[in-house]
Amino acid sequence: MTAGAVPPTTRATRAAASLAYKAWCETRVRLAVAVVALGAACGLVVAQGDWRLGHPMPFARYVWSAAYNDSVKTAFIWLAVILGTGSLRQEHAVGTAGFTLALPVTRGQLLAVRAGVGLAEVAALAVLAAVMISGVSWATGGGALIGLSLRFVVAWAVCGGLLASIGLLASIAIANEYVGWLVTILAIMAYQVTVALTPLRRIPACDLFQIMAMPSAGLPITALLGVAAATAGVLAIGHRWLRARER
Amino acid sequence: MLALGWKAWRESRARFALSAAALAGLCLALVVFQAELRRLIGATKPPATTYVGYLHIRLYASVGCAVFWLIAIVLGLGGLARERTHGTLGFTLALPVPRSHHAIARAAVGVLELAALALVPVVVVPAASWLVGERYPWSQAVGFAALWLGVGSVGFAVSFAISVIVRSDYVALAVAVLTMRLVPSAVALIPGLEGWRPLDVMSGRGQSYFDPATAMLTCVPWPVAAVALVAACALITIAVQLARQERFAG
User: Fold this and answer.
1) What is the DSSP string of chain A?
2) pTM
3) Which of A34, A186, A197 lies closest to B174 in CB terms?
4) How much is the ipTM here?
5) In chain B, which residues have their Cβ closer than 8 Å to the Cβ of A181?
6) Which of B14, B26, B86 comes nearest A94 by C-beta?
């Protein structure tokens, strides 16, 4: 190595950091909107609660059914897909793909960093939901529910990661942003219907939304490992598609 | 204006085709697998035990209604702000028509697409029901289609207005879907407006024109649909004015 030359590992780290900054700049407004919206959703759930009116349902049970298993979960699913979408395909449409491809990195690295930033943002959103619900719950006298919230953070971050990676895969396959998002959401709904209609419903680990709602009883480690493996599989398919387009 | 309508159709036809296929597929699946799905509901009391009640629960009061609402939101997105990002704005603005005509043509095409989508269950549900040996009244399907079109138009109009204000594709999408998800819940907190959530109006739940004992509309709620359409027109007019005043420099 010549004096002053940058070692390859340092160069790769710098490239990854630059790409991560690029991905962050592209998604930060979406993330800001998501943070505000999810915060509002959590606040609404507590404000709307029947438990305030002396409802017999314990507060922890109410939070599970209303927030972690209903409206906040739906908002989180939509947001996870929106945070995951966006790839070179959309850059072609806006005319910036040339600049991105001129960077001295492979398409695989572009995809890996984009996916990493998307997954990190989804995880941050899961933490935000837990902090908001625990905070509002504590402030309104319902207890902080820290144990429940921590379990949900892990489950939502892992499951949200899979949804974000499916969104990323759709954006690699489909150029139109709205069509890509609609395809992803409709595919998720079709998956839900399929699970409900087939013997798969007897295996809770096959139902992503069941896994997201499960931590009230305990963290489903095996199911979450399966979801993480599925995320890796979806990203691998995305990588293959990108490589195929490279040829 | 026809040429602008053709342009708006070309820009939204993929979304429309996908939405039509999804709605038709959903209606067909709910009718074809009705025996299995009714068993899964596990209802013991009417109207949930009846075929009409089952269709109301599964299609008109839950998943079908939610899918249509989502489709209305996505169809409303697009327009000149998006074209700026995609670099085609110059070509569009070079056309010898006022800016408001672009927005009006896009809104008209969107509402027509929404009307065609609202008719999908009107055609598919009674026809497929007949094929599986069940019966679903056309009048009910038409009534719900009117409600879907009216309330869906309001969702479309809000989304349309958001697409005029917000430039980024994904940010507009995020703002639109979250507004549609959260604002109705917030409105429902206001005393006196509890029953006016869009999905409640679309499904008839808690409304005077719906009989919960039979899960059927007591009449075709044209006035409700008409008021919703007027509200949608007002919102679209505001959005068109905003689009007219927009400065597209830079």
Assistant:
1) --TTPPPHHHHHHHHHHHHHHHHHHHHHHHHHHHHHHHHHHHHHHHHT-GGGGT-SS-HHHHHIIIIITTHHHHHHHHHHHHHH---HHHHHHHT-HHHHHTSSS-HHHHHHHHHHHHHHHHHHHHHHHHHHHHHHHHHTTS---HHHHHHHHHHHHHHHHHHHHHHHHHHHH-S-HHHHHHHHHHHHHHHHHHHHHSGGGG-GGG-HHHHHHGGGT---HHHHHHHHHHHHHHHHHHHHHHHHHH-
2) 0.83
3) A34
4) 0.79
5) 74, 173
6) B86
